[in-house]
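Re: the 699-residue chain
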Amino acid sequence: MSGEDRVVAPFGTWHSPLDPAAAAAGGVRFDRVEIATRPDGAVTVRWQESRPAERGRGVVCEWRSRPGHPDGAGSTELTGRDRSVRSGVNEYGGGSWWSGPDGACFVVDASTQQVLRIGPDGATRPVTQVPVTGGVDRHAAGVVVPGGRWMVVERERIVPVIGTSHHELVALPVDEPVAVGGLPVVDGADFVAAPTVSPDGRALAWLRWDHPDMPWDAAELWAGALHDDGEELTVTGARRVAGGRPLGSPRPVSVCLPSFDPDGVLWWCDDRSDWWHLRHAPVAGVPEEGVGDTVDLVWDREEEVGEPRWTSGGRRVGWCDDGRVVFAAAAGGRHAVWVAAPGTEPVRLPGVDATHVEHLAVSGRHVAMVAGDGVRPTTVWLVDVDTGAAVDLRGAVPLLDADDISVAEPITFPTTDGEVAHGLFHPPVSATHRGPDGSLPPLVVRIHGGPTAASRAEFSPSVQFWTTRGLAVVEVDYRGSTGYGRRYRDLLRGQWGVVDVEDCRSAAGWLAEQGRVAAGACVIRGGSAGGFTALSALVADGRAIRAGGEPVFAAACTLYGVTDLAALAADTHEFESRYLDGLVGVWPDEAAVYAARSPAAHVELIDAPVLILQGGEDPVVPVAQAHELRDALAARGVPHACVVFPGEAHGFRQAQNVVRALELELACYGEVLGFVPDDQVPSTVLARSTAVAPERPDT
């Protein structure tokens, strides 16, 4: 339909081909991908996906190629319809499955956190048992030692009486169940993770870090010799290879993504030279103590191969059988996959023009990757490195026609302190509607979590939900976000609740100055850390109003967001229990800063409406924080709604809850910005004094 033939309608009222149910169903999440090439040249790919339509159930899928049929025979489930696969390590999980010898698959059962072995015939048996002490053993990121007798696995042991955790790497037998847990092989730090074994089975490498550091602050790479004496698996000669706080370094160094290449040389990423770049040891086997403090970069490019280690089991580097390296890297808000022979410059992987890559694995001349671009949903791809032949192993169906898709535009804009910030801008797009002449769309500012995370330059149903209705969206990679180097990431240290808020305000103001969005018609929303930033932005607006200025945001939506920093420091899980030391200051020494930055302590400055969406079983941001904010807003008569979703934790996984959250958000923005959505949404969402949202009581 030409521009002249499109229906003229106010922004926000357009009919969208993407209803809330379709947007929720399109939000499949992925975990680890593996690939293997059989002697006859056939390829097997396995991956995990979490399906909102099945209440977030985690499923391991397998795809096999067939001779003469490059598209294969479709994917099958390995884990059965009565089981969900998900690790609970550090609450964020990841690395919930791995392949074993002879076609076996090891998975972490979501309900018990046991490791289970699933044979090629589908027969399932436990490898670990539930502790009789009443505690919980969580497992993740297993790797089978060549020879097939043992596997090394991350374990988080929850001590029930004192409520603390012990992190270690343990050895589990591949073919025999164990009474409880496994045989510890590596500990000695607050956190140990990411085991990787050399191809000859003689070397083990891993990451370790201690509080108050987070892994993206000062993770160390360690390695040692691996011994199997027939009775047990042990590590000797353990030593630090790279990262941490090496002598003479002007700042800490973070290491991530350790892996041995086919020749037994240890590779990793570290940010010693600002970007998370690839490096490798000089020789195969166990590297010398501290050798990584001096080795040169493999390629010196302004891009990041590494990523913040929130979840277990990540992989972004692999090797072809001829020695070429395949890796994913982020630059300018987008990802790309590169291929390079030793000593040559990388070239783009042909076949798939990916702009966001989550996981990657290589075998022979094939790459399997979880990746997406601006127009197709993220899916699992199999790509021939030489020919560029690419197969979508899930057969993902496009959710929208090309004329309805808003493709992300990377932006860089000025912000405070003479700095710049970054983001992805999505203008409203519709094949059938357009806004009135001379009018500009309202803006939804989306804030990622973390806060050490980044926006994703992929086709996002949750973004297209807004743009197809006539709203613009900007995803802000504020100072502190990943993908722009260590210096940019460190600009948030001690400044959370300050520079992130300033960058969100700057993004909205800059887009209005550029004539892309309507000034004064802007809402802000975010989940987890992003919810904290969204609420802090309303507090900043309140201060601006009282100083004679103008507010930027007309409303905020916080999804399982932080409201009280002191409460978070006192009542969160172990992985993040010292995170605020670097983001805000050491508690309780900096109690005044915590109070100054907490939205819950400054509700008197919040004048704009607030929508609070919260999981009822959230271990990261307890539901009490949502309740306290709700009650404070109600006491002041600020328009608000609070909805708690039973059965949800930190992030919504069940389709019906994702649908309900989208409907409430759309209704809220319609009320605040003065448009009537085309969808069937609640006619009244916001209340001034009640603590109950319509149609779903707060529980």
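Residues 3-7+400-673 form a domain with the Rossmann fold fold (CATH 3.40.50.1820).
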